[in-house]
UniProtKB/TrEMBL annotation:
The keyword Iron-sulfur applies. Keywords: 2Fe-2S, Iron, Iron-sulfur, Metal-binding, Oxidoreductase. Residues 1-76 form the 2Fe-2S ferredoxin-type domain. PANTHER family: BLR6218 PROTEIN (PTHR44379:SF2), OXIDOREDUCTASE WITH IRON-SULFUR SUBUNIT (PTHR44379). InterPro entries: 2Fe-2S-bd, 2Fe-2S-bd_dom_sf, 2Fe-2S_ferredoxin-like_sf, 2Fe-2S_ferredoxin-type, 2Fe2S_fd_BS, Beta-grasp_dom_sf, Diverse_Oxidoreductases. Gene3D superfamilies: 3.10.20.30, [2Fe-2S]-binding domain. This is (2Fe-2S)-binding protein. SUPFAM superfamilies: 2Fe-2S ferredoxin-like (SSF54292), CO dehydrogenase ISP C-domain like (SSF47741). The keyword Iron applies. It comes from Novosphingobium tardum.
Length: 180
C-alpha cells in the first residue's frame, strides 16, 4: 500500500500502486480541486506540486510518488492568501475556473524557484490549456505574484478593471475549494 505525504499529512492509500495519483487524490482523499481534464497529460488541469516540482497527477502512479511530498490546491494556502491566488483574481485571470487550480499550482512551483521569471519562462512553466484563452492575464498574474513575493508590490482588494468586486469575491474561494 503506497504511502506518501499529501498536504503535510501522511497518507497510506489502499489502492493498486499503479493507480494514477489524480484518482487517488480525487476519489480516495476527496481532494477534488485537482481536476480531471484529459487523462493524457496534455491539459494540465491536474497539476500538483510534488517535492517542489509541478507535475501532472494523471501521469504519475501512486508507486512513483511513494514516500514523496504532494501539495494540492487545497493546501497551497488555507486562506486563499497565496500571492498567486490573489494575483489571479486581481488580474482577472480566471474565466470559467476549471483550469485555474492547475495553472495556480504550476505558477506557484515556478515562483518558488524563481520569483522573477521572464515571459518565456512563464509560458514554459505553465503549459496548461485554457479554453477561455486567459493566457495574457495569467502571465500578468504570475509577474504580479512574483513582485509581491519579492516585496516590491502588494495586492490591493480592488480587482482588475472590468472585474466586479462581487465576481472577485466569488473567485477567491473557487481557487481552492473541494468541488468537482
Amino acid at each position: 500500500m503506497p504511502r506518501l505525504t499529501v498536504n503535510d499529512r501522511p497518507i497510506q492509500f489502499r489502492m493498486d500502486p499503479q493507480t494514477p495519483l489524480l484518482w487517488a487524490l480525487r476519489d480516495a482523499a476527496n481532494l477534488t480541486g485537482t481536476k480531471f481534464g484529459c487523462g493524457a497529460g496534455d491539459c494540465g488541469a491536474c497539476m500538483v506540486i510534488i517535492d517542489g516540482e509541478a507535475i501532472r497527477a494523471c501521469l504519475v502512479t501512486l508507486a512513483e510518488v511513494e514516500g514523496r511530498f504532494v501539495t494540492t490546491i487545497e493546501a497551497l494556502s488555507r486562506d486563499r492568501g497565496h500571492p498567486v491566488q490573489q494575483a489571479f483574481v486581481a488580474e482577472g485571470a480566471i474565466q470559467c475556473g476549471f483550469c485555474t487550480p492547475g495553472m495556480v499550482m504550476a505558477a506557484a512551483a515556478l515562483l518558488a524557484r524563481n520569483a522573477d521569471p521572464a515571459e518565456a519562462e512563464i509560458a514554459a512553466a505553465i503549459p496548461n490549456l485554457c479554453r477561455c484563452g486567459v493566457y495574457p492575464r495569467v502571465t500578468r498574474a504570475v509577474q504580479r505574484a512574483g513582485r509581491v513575493m519579492r516585496r516590491e508590490e502588494t495586492i490591493s482588494a480592488a480587482p482588475a478593471p472590468g472585474i466586479s468586486p462581487a465576481d472577485a469575491a466569488r473567485a477567491v474561494p473557487a481557487l481552492g475549494t473541494a468541488k468537482p
